[in-house]
Design a protein that fits this description.
The longest helix has 12 residues, at 25-36. 26% of the residues lie in helices and 24% in strands. With 93 residues, the protein is an alpha+beta fold. The strands form 2 sheets. It has a two-stranded parallel ribbon. It has 4 helices and 4 strands, in the order βααβααββ. The protein has helices spanning 12-15, 25-36, 49-52, 60-63, and strands at 5-11, 41-47, 71-73, 79-83. The chain is elongated.
Length: 93
């Protein structure tokens, strides 16, 4: 196929495995490999809550703290498999 473009999914937990501690070594490794293979374009697709709105994309540390990161409550009064947007602030806390 001689493709020279990559689209790579990256999950939130791969970059922020602990709250506020970011590790971009995966991104660095992927960029080095893309250059080695002479890719002209590398797009990272970040799989996070804004795009997916589902708990299974949340980092484990968020899943363990349901009081700080509660789910949306549905019309029937039961929690929905989606975290509440009200539990997030722009400063990351």
């Amino acid at each position: 196929m001689h493709a020279n473009t990559l689209e790579v999914p990256i999950y939130w937990e791969q970059i922020e495995a602990q709250p506020g501690k970011f590790d971009l070594s995966l991104v660095d490794t992927l960029l080095v490999q893309a250059r080695e293979h002479q890719c002209s374009s590398c797009t990272f697709v970040v799989c996070d809550l804004e795009k997916t709105a589902a708990n299974h994309y949340m980092p484990e540390w968020m899943k363990r703290d349901a009081l700080k990161y509660p789910n949306i409550i549905g019309r029937n009064g039961q929690p929905v498999d989606s975290p509440s947007p009200h539990s997030f602030r722009c400063d990351g806390s």
